[in-house]
From TrEMBL:
It comes from Gordoniibacillus kamchatkensis. CDD domains: S4 (cd00165). This is RQC P-site tRNA stabilizing factor. PROSITE patterns: S4 (PS50889). It comes from the Bacteria. Associates with stalled 50S ribosomal subunits. Binds to RqcH, 23S rRNA and the P-site tRNA. Does not require RqcH for association with 50S subunits. Key component of the ribosome quality control system (RQC), a ribosome-associated complex that mediates the extraction of incompletely synthesized nascent chains from stalled ribosomes and their subsequent degradation. RqcH recruits Ala-charged tRNA, and with RqcP directs the elongation of stalled nascent chains on 50S ribosomal subunits, leading to non-templated C-terminal alanine extensions (Ala tail). The Ala tail promotes nascent chain degradation. RqcP is associated with the translocation-like movement of the peptidyl-tRNA from the A-site into the P-site.
Length: 89
């Protein structure tokens, strides 16, 4: 599944266009590497997303083409949340 679509379907980011913009700005990493909106996301991948001054790292648990709002959080597990800039990039 495309990165921008996963971010939208999982509701980590509310709109696909915003997900596309965020990844084009270099604020999303898959398994430690810069990710583009079209990058492939697989189960087990670790995504790091910079939201302003916060960096959230999640593990992809499952991929579905669509999901209900209540079930969206089951698509990923939050591994850590930290202020951006504290980890060694």
């Amino acid at each position: 599944m495309r990165l921008d679509k996963f971010l939208k379907v999982s509701r980590l980011i509310k709109r696909r266009t915003v997900a596309k913009d965020v990844s084009e700005q270099g604020r999303v990493w898959i398994n430690g590497r810069d990710a583009k909106p079209s990058s492939a996301v697989k189960e087990g991948d670790e995504l790091a997303i910079q939201f302003g001054q916060k960096k959230v790292t999640v593990r992809v648990e499952r991929l579905t083409e669509s999901t209900r709002k209540e079930d969206a959080a089951t698509m990923y597990t939050v591994l850590k949340e930290e202020p951006f800039g504290t980890s060694q990039e």
